[in-house]
Structure formats: C-alpha cells, structure tokens
Amino acid sequence: MAAEPLNWSRAELSALLLKAGRGAGFPLAHAEDMARAVGRYGDGRAMEAVLRALGTPWTALAMKVTERRLIIESACAVQALPHVVDALTSGCEEALLRGLDEPCLLAAYLHGTDFAGHPMGEHWRVAQGPATLAVPAPQPITPEQIAELEIFAARTYVPASLTSREGAGQGADQD
Amino acid sequence: MTKRHPDRVMSLAHLGAAQPTRLSFLRRLMDDLARLEAKVSRPTWDIDADGHGHAVYTVTLPHRQLSLIAFANELDDDARSDRVIATAWDAAFVLFDGVPETADIKRLRANVPLQEAGRYSPRELTLSRANKSMRLFTHVVEALRSGQQPDRAMVAECGYLMRTTAVYGNGKFGLSDRTRYAADDILRRPFTAEMLTVWLIRGFTHDLAEHLGAGKIDRDIKRFLGIGNATGLGMAPFLVTHPQLLHAWTDARETVLAAALGDIVDARRAARLLALAGEATRYLASWRVPDTGAMADIEALRADWAGFVQPLTPEELMAAGALADAMARAAARSPALEELVVAWIIEAPERTLDPATEGEATQLDLVLAGAMTCRALRALIADECAWALAPDFAHAGETRQFWYVSEEKLEPRLGARHEEGGADRESPLDTARQIAALYQSLPETTDPCFAFLAKHPEHRAAARRVQFVASHPYAEIRANLIGEDAAPIHLLRCKLAHFGATRFDPKSRLWTRVTLAQGLPLSDEIGARVPWLPSL
Question: How many CB pairs under 8 A join A and B?
C-alpha cells in the first residue's frame, strides 16, 4: 500500500475507527476500545491489522478463565485484547494468547497499562511488567486505509427521512 | 454539605431548565483572561468598503499568542442559511496558534470559507462560520451612517449582529487535537478554545458594523451585542458519549452549590443576592421568544421568580438556613425556578471558586472493574440505575425514537423506529435500554463479571457505564433517550448552559437559538465586572 502521509488528527481517527468498528458489527465496547487504542497510536501497521479484523466475521472466542489465568485459543487480537486487559486489571496474573493473529496490536491496546506482551513461541503471554520488545517506529496511515475504514463506517449511516428533517432547523432566516 | 440527588439533577426536566452560572465556560474564560492579563490587538484589518476581506485579532498571554483569523465574504441573501449543512456563509473563522504569516493566510483563505470541505492543520484550533442577522446588522450600519445610535429596543430584541452555527474543534477536519493543548494555562478548561473563538468573533462583528457604518456604537450597546447561535441535534450525542465530562461539569456546579448553601450569609452577601435577584428580574422581563409554548414557560418562570424574590429581605437572607429554605421553596415550585435559584446562589459568593472545579476538563477512560461479581453488578444496577430499569422496553412508546447519522450530511438525526427504516444502524444513545438488557442477562452468581462479559461482550459497554455512574453520579442523563417523550432540546439546553448561553429561544423540540457572550467585557475591558444575566 502507498505510504503517503496524511494529516488526520487522533480525534478524527478515533471517531472513524469507532464508527468502522460498529459498522463491522463489533460490540460497542470493543469498537470503543479499538478506537481509543489504535486511534491514539496512529500507526499504519496497526491500522492494517485492524482493517483485516474488520473484514473478518465476529465469532465467539474460545477461552478458559481460571482464578489466575485467562487462556484464549486462536486469539483474534481486537476481540481478545479488551478481555485480556479486563482480566489482568481484575486480579488475573496472566493471559495466554494462543495463535494471536496480530501481535502488532499488543502495544496499542496495552499502552498506558502496567502490562506487556511477551512472545512464547507461537503464543503470547501478557502480564504485569515492562515491555521487553522494542516497539517499531509508527508507520504513516495512508489515504487508502482511511478509505477502507470509511466503507465500514458507512454501514452505520442511514438515509435521512423527510420527517427527520421536519423541525430540525430553518433553511433561511433574515432576522 | 449534601449535593442534590442525581435522579433530580440529571432528569430531562432539570437539564432542560438549566441556566448559565459563574462556572459556565464563557465566564471561566473571562476569569482566566483577566488573571493572565490578556491583551487583544488587531494587527490586520484588510476589509474593503463592502465589508469583504480578512482580519486578524491576536490575544497575547504571558506564555503564548492565539489569533482569530476572520474571512468576510459576499453572500446572496437567498443563500444565507442557519443549517449546519449550508455551504456558504457571510464570514468564516479559525483560531490560530500564534500569529499567522502571509503563507498561513493564503492557505487558510483557500480552506476556511469551505468549512467542512476544507482541510486544516494542527496550527488551527477551531473552525467556525457566521451569518449576519440581517435586520439588525443592516439597521446598525444604517443608523451609524446617519450619525445615530441603533434603536435600543431592536438591539434588545435580537441581541447579536451575527449568528454562528457549528464551532468545530478537537481534531475535526485535521484541526489540532485537544490533547495537544489540554495542559495549557488558558486552554485547559473544557471548550475554552471554542469559547475564545466565539468571544473574538463577537468583537469582529462589532468592528465590521462600525467599519461599514463609519461610526462607533455606544459602549453599553456594543457590550450587549453578543453572538447568536443556532444549535441542533449535532450537539446532543456529546453528552451521552462523554459521561466523564458530563459528571465533571455537573459535579463542579453541585459542589459549589452545596458549599454556598452551607455559607453564613452576612450583610454583604445578602445585599449581593438581592442585587442579583434584580438582575434576574430584568433579564426575565426582557427574555422574549416567538414560540408561544416557550414564551408561556418564560412567563411562568417570571411569575414564579417574582413570587420567590418578593419576600426576600436582607434580614431573611441572613437567618440561619435561609438559602437552603429558599432552595426548598424553589424546588417545590418547578424545575425552571429551581435551576434559576441554583445559578443565583452560585453567583453570589465573592470568593475564588473551589479548586474542585479545576477538574472539569478531566478525560478518563471507562475501565471495567472486572473482579466485581455478577451478583454485585446486578445489585449496583438496581441501586444506581432505577431510571434505566423503569421503562418497559416491550412497549412501543419506550422505543419510539432512534438516533442515527445521516448518510447525506453525516449529521445526527432522530428517526421514528416503528415507521421508518434504519433502526438496525442506530447510534448507541440508548443507554437505559442497554443497562436494562445487561440487568436481564446477568446471572446471580459470584463469578467475576469480566468472565461473563467475555462471553457476552455486547453488554460490556453498559457494564462499564454502570460502574462509572456508581462513583460518578452525574455521569448519565437519567432518562430513556429513545422513548417518545425524550425531547433533544433538553440536552441542548443543558450543554449550552454549561457554555454560558443566554436567551434560549427554542424553535422546535430539535433545535434552538441562543445568544453567547452577551454582556461580557469587550476586548479592551478584560477584568471588568461580568454580569450573570445581561439586559440592556
């Protein structure tokens, strides 16, 4: 994809990501978390991962919860990471993500928390502690990525009805 | 020190009766401009004899400069529209970080008049536009040209020379993210950049009328000329999507109110309360709107206020518990009277405002307390969210409306769920229904709620809101916003009152006109007394 720099504010990105998440059928809180994490992060690589997730049907996570551990199989990052943060802030000691599809989203979702992801072969362990892996420099977000997001966001738009316009404002006023 | 109960404060009836207070954002801006000894200059006035061109106003503060850049354009009368969806305006504005160079003006001249169709940079903090109030603007210019002052009755009736619609900020269309300036000494409070824009635009409208009229408007008339604003549904969702801010703003007001109610009223405070009561009486007498229903509400408030202030004497006010008694009297009468009395009591203390109000711009993420058991979360809903459990959502009337974003203009709209399509794409402003659905699904178990929510992620947003409102009681509008009786105008009134708007002039249940910055000091009067409720 072309990497043409784009002057999009973080607030714009977050707003568009929220709508795109809702348009793709994500539960509201997951769309909110994605908007916050990836919008704030402003990284083209994370955006690419999000676009792949938006195009993937939402399926129930296969997970196991014990008192100290959350285990998620075939972990789709945008689905799993909000629950990982929930679990770790609720007393779980670690989360094990087997087959995590988009490890590049770990840094975005864990930003501002006390948790970090650590690779364990094909899997990832998330627990309290400092990150041990260097986070690559952010890549620019491209107009093409924005255009793709807008396709998902458009799924939340509704053609305005005539009745919705009634009483919604005056066309002209010369007072 | 007991604060008012959130079931009362956050009801639509009370939100829809809100009045501006000394905590309103325009008032706090005036405080800060005075504290920082701000100076306003006009380094550029490149406006021709027809009133077209551009001007720059620069606010110089100890630590930075901010400039309003105004572009005045030619506009046919039949193209003048208040709608946010209009495409041309009499004037367009940006608030610029610093003092613009020629290249900045050139870049912005190509974009600012286009408004939403243009693109902006982080150097621009806000974007806005305004149309002339033709009857008054023309009258003021003609009066000045003939060596006269404008007719005071006409000025009092309209109260502004130009009317804004949207004032965009926080990253829209590439503008600066608020996070870039949220720690700044002048811009840290909520919507300060937007309020500063409005206040500077007001000065531009005065200058433009004086330029075209080749005369000076008397200072008291000029001070009364604020900025009109037409506000519709676009403003309403913000209060639902920002529960942290709604709580912070409301809690600041309720905290200051509770403290003021606990004060001992001395002779000085009593005199001030009576003077302010007179100010409110004059304001109410001059507040007239065309809509007969809205006018009847204002007349009822006038009568209630007259009955409320009639028995007040300095001695009565200095009696122990007098203000609390006054509040109780007002509360027993009507939400409109109660909210006016709240603003009156807050206005009177001369002390510096409570530091608790400094948290008004707090931006917190909602975080799930996932260790809470499902049983405890259910109990929390029952205890804190009765307003969400009260509606019977199986009844068609309780889901009559749905909010959505229009495909054509990307603007919020309200649809009729049972008559129109599109409800499957509705915006999630149905907080009460979401909480009720969570309540119905939650098992009575001691499992941690995060485990339940991992299996039922559709309820996670509601769970976070419930937990937040338990510790931040003013975070939610305590009403069913998709019910047939929920009128958006109440939400607009609430937010506009926080801004400091006066003279609410509702045009329907969906939109209103207001006046902003009316009565505030002019740019060469920073630090002068600011009236609570202005009248001419």
Answer: 167
The answer on pLDDT for A172 being more than 50 is: no
The runs of H, that is alpha helices, within chain A are 10-23, 28-41, 44-54, 77-88, 106-110, 143-153, 162-165
Backbone angles phi, psi at B412, to 5 degrees: -60, 140
Place B363 in a pLDDT band, splitting at 50, 70 and 90: low
State ipTM.
Answer: 0.93
Tens digit of each residue's pLDDT (9 = 90 or more) over A61-78: 999 988 799 999 999 999
Q: List for chain B the helix, strand, coil content (%; round to 5).
A: 50, 15, 35
Place of tokens 């993420």: B365
- Spatial distance between the Cα atoms of B293 and B286, rounded to a whole number of angstroms: 17
Integer Cα distance of B56 and B40 in angstroms: 10
CB contact under 8 A, B407 and A11: no
Cα B488 from Cα B494, distance rounded (Å): 10
d(CA B529, CA B192): 19
Cβ contacts of B510 on chain A, cutoff 8 Å: 167-169
B393 torsion bin: left (phi>0), alpha (psi -120 to 50), beta (else): alpha
Which amino acid appears at position B100 of this protein?
A: P
When scoring A40, A68, A175 by the number of chain B Cβ atoms within 10 A, the one with the most, hence best to mutate, is A175
- Are B32 and B192 contacting, i.e. CB atoms less than 8 angstroms apart? yes
pTM: 0.94
For residue B506, the distance in angstroms to the closest alpha carbon of chain A comes to 10
Between A8 and A21, the higher pLDDT residue: A21
Note which residues in 18-47 of chain A have CB less than 8 A from chain B. 19, 22, 27-30, 32, 36
Rounded Cα distance, A66 and A70, in Å: 6
Cα A97 to Cα A70, A126, A130, B36, B170: the distances in Å are 8, 8, 18, 53, 36
- The one-character DSSP state at B529 is -
**Residue showing tokens 């309780």:** B398
The amino acid at residue B31 is: D
What pLDDT score does B355 carry?
Answer: 60
Cα torsion angle, B70, B73, B79, B80, sign: positive
